[in-house]
# Entry
Amino acid sequence: MTQDAIRIEGLKKTYAGGKQALKGIDLTVPAGSIFGLLGPNGAGKSTMINILAGLVTKSAGHVQIWGWDQDRNPRQSRAAIGVMPQELNLDPFFTPRGALEVQAGLYGVPKSQRRSDEILEMVGLSDKAEAYARTLSGGMRRRLLLAKALVHAPQVLVLDEPTAGVDIELRQMLWSNVRKLNRDNGMTIILTTHYLEEAEEMCDEIAIINHGQLVARDSTANLLGQLDAKTMVIHPETPADRLPHGKGLIAETREDGTIAISYRARETGAEAVLEAVRAAGIRIRDVRTEQADLQDVFLSLTRST
Ligand code: ADP
Ligand code: MG
# Structure
């Protein structure tokens, strides 16, 4: 399927009180992908997700979910998406099984098609199926929120900071489930996280938002491609009169007398850089390398706006 799972155009949100949380977002999420939505605290990630979920009303713009316009076809667009919210908003008087049954009822899933036991098994809550939600640990409540998002077998699953502050076991359970749902059911997954390594590992594509605006949107591979840039900093024995040169190398003298040579680590090995240094007649007193990481890219993209 080549359709977009989500299509957002000109999305704006101003909260009562005047806070402009989204300032006109255009974004499409391809069907079948695992898509990461990144941004610092307060960037507008949850606002966007809650608009997708129908929990927050937008101020302007258009939202299509699985081809259904949210305003013209609210029932269909809602049925196509399941959201695991950031807040642990559970009714304390329901058991996990009860909560799933109520959720299934809300979405009009016929009794014969309900899969509560299977879903509880999947998230590791089978033995807590009859426990009151108020007796569940924080981790178990998160598992239950994921289970609730899945009862109507949505095409698109959205997870808002699912692993913030959770233990390693739960994190692994979440990610293996997410991968499985994506691989076996072709479910499109959208997740927000502020763990950049996690986004790097999980996501095919990444969008970065800051102050309610989209600042980057690319495949993870391309974003990481930006990180491929490395710099070798040479402290020469004596001031250099020639700079090293070579294919893919950019050399410059810094104010402190060191020579900074930028190169792409994937194309050029350190040995080739050192050869160019020696070929320029430079004797090396000391050497170090500088490398950007996703944190740097993220900061450079989210600092100035
Ligand atoms: P994120 O999820 O990226 O941390 P949010 O979408 O939660 O960001 O918040 C974006 C901005 O909107 C923040 O400045 C936040 O304080 C504000 N905000 C969020 N929810 C509300 C609300 N219900 N009323 C007023 N302002 C809100
Ligand atoms: Mg949030």
Notes: The radius of gyration is 24 Å. Residues 15, 17, 19, 21, 39, 41-47 surround adenosine-5'-diphosphate (ligand 1) (CB under 6 Å). The mean pLDDT is 90. Residues 168-185 form the longest helix (18 residues).
